[in-house]
Amino acid sequence: FAVYVTPGFASDGFSSTLVNDGSSLCMDENDWTTVSAAQFQQYACNGGTNQGFTFVPTSAGSSTYYIQPMTPDYCLDVLGASTSSGAAIDQYPCNYNSNEQFTLTSVSTGVYEVVAKNSGLCVAPSGDSTAGSANLVQVSCSTAATRIWKITT
Question: What are the b/e assignments for 105-144, b being 16+ CB within 10 Å?
């Protein structure tokens, strides 16, 4: 195996699944795809590697992270660096820009808003859906159950 040191990354990250509080479904890399710009969805939690994420802090002690899926060298990303509500949450080769930085804002113990740094909008299922396979987008933040995520740190 190999170890890569990426400039600016602190060593105190963690790994977790993200479970939508409203649907109890997991953030999911659809069909284990490794395609750039593939949109994330929510799907029944199954313990698959496509539902595991590594949170790498943007600086030591920060609550803002690069969230990396199972696809090597990819990051959770706001498609096209959009600042518009409804923009897709996808995976993209890490470029470490603000559209790949997400702040975890605590709502209650283990429950967070996942806020895109570039837009100030939160990750949620499209239309606040509780259905499996609903695509993830960025929308205005609130503590509505479909707009918050359980994260085990």
Answer: eebeeebbbbbbbbbebbbbbbebbeeeebbbbbbebeee
